[in-house]
Amino acid sequence: MPGIADPTLAPEGRRRIDWARQHMPVLHRLLEERLQDGVLRGRRVAVVVHLEAKTACLVLALRAAGADVVAAGSNPRSTQDAVCAALVEQGVEVHARHGVPPDEFTADLLAVAESGAELVIDDGAELTRRMAQHRPDLYDRLAGVSEETTTGVARLRALEQEGLLTFPAIAANDARCKHMFDNPYGTGQTTLTALLALTNVLAAGREFCVVGYGWVGKGVARAAAGLGGRVTVVEVDPVRALTAHMDGFRVAALADALPSADVVITATGLTKAISADAFDLLKDGVLLANAGHHDREIDVPALAEIADEIVDARANVKTYLLGGRRVHVLVDGALVNIAGLDGNPIEIMDLSFSVQALSIHHLAAGGAPAGVNRFPDELDDLIARTKLRTLGIELDRPNAEQLAFRSSWTV
Ligand SMILES: NC(=O)c1ccc[n+]([C@@H]2O[C@H](COP(=O)([O-])OP(=O)(O)OC[C@H]3O[C@@H](n4cnc5c(N)ncnc54)[C@H](O)[C@@H]3O)[C@@H](O)[C@H]2O)c1
Predict the structure, then answer these.
(1) Domain for residue 32, yes or no?
(2) Exposed (0-12), middle (13-18) or buried (19+): which is 91, by Cβ within 10 Å?
(3) Whose CA is nearest to atom 27 of ligand 1?
(4) Residue from 15, 7, 120, 118 nearest 356 by CA
(5) What is the pLDDT, as a whole number, of residue 108?
(6) How much distance in Å is there from the Cα of 138 to the middle of ligand 1?
(7) Which helix (H) or strand (E) holds 188?
(8) Host domain of residue 49
(9) Residue 330: which CATH number?
(10) Of the four, 1, 16, 30, 256, which is 20 to 30 A from 59 by CA?
(11) Which residues does ligand 1 sit against, CB inside 6 Å?
(12) Do 207 and 260 contact (CB within 8 A), yes or no?
């Protein structure tokens, strides 16, 4: 039954939200200076993003801008029931419960879709794709979707290619103020923080294998190396593999990297990066963790099938016994930083959610064509300038002579 798990958890949720709000100056400055101009007043906005304290700040900021917000989580494992309770206490409609099975998760999302959502902030296209599957009729009501992450943008483009994207969408993930900070700095730091907190092991001197050297993988590799880890990168894109080499990492094929890896972290955004044929190559005691959007990068069901026994080793760590070897899987292969800990750092989500808030404001204003749109450059600049201002940093601007030189071929 859609709704929340336990309203009595509201005081704890309020504490978490208050803490996050203190570290989100950019979103709140943009709320005062841009978002409260009336464009969002009375608009029904659905926020379907990992439902923890930072997301709650986004929800409350949109509401302060006049929107009528309904919220759900983008992964039941990352939903924090206390935060849901605090939002409900403040009058927000929420359909999210921690740890529910897939059918109940879908029911929660469909409850959001059926509640009259016209603008959607989505993560992994979890709501948008379910609407296509279960309630395509509700697409008529959509004035726009703003998508948070790499995997979701790929899904929106796939919908577009099939002619199903009948409304404007914005690839918020592709905004410079999102993917250049959230994916490498935020996810890099917090993937390592979560992995170390969940296991209580030392990073220094450990052999890390990072699978996928995109924006996230790059950050994860840098964070692991920064803590003294020895990093091998596995990539299928030759240019990115070469970048990893130039960045100073060992680059190898998966089959060459796995036998010596103490820790394997996936960040491909695709499925089965570690699949059944890789299990024989895993070293005894290896830690497997995932930083990508969904829970399918490590084929945990296939691992369970061949395991002699599965043991709860620690909170959020399961050990799969394979003959004489132990394979430890963190958070059942869900994104380790969000499902295993508190997700990306607050200041990073201040930038990412500023992108989302301005993106939904832009969509609400109308004028964007159907299909996947870029996040406007001037809004990216506005967010970066606002962030710099909160840091007390003012920028120089090119003078008239420099501007003339830039636009001329004669001088
Ligand atoms: N955990 C978080 O907080 C968080 C934050 C941002 C993004 N994400 C998610 O992380 C994932 C990666 O995001 P990104 O921005 O780095 O994407 P990206 O597309 O920039 O990078 C993915 C990389 O993986 C490589 N790859 C694909 N399949 C591979 C395979 N089998 N073996 C080796 N390499 C392979 C690709 O060539 C690419 O370079 C996505 O699912 C994204 O949604 C998670």
Answers:
(1) yes
(2) exposed
(3) 268
(4) 120
(5) 97
(6) 30
(7) helix 187-199
(8) 7-180+344-390
(9) 3.40.50.720
(10) 1
(11) 149-151, 179, 182-183, 187, 211-217, 234-237, 240, 267-270, 273, 291-293, 335, 337-338, 344
(12) yes
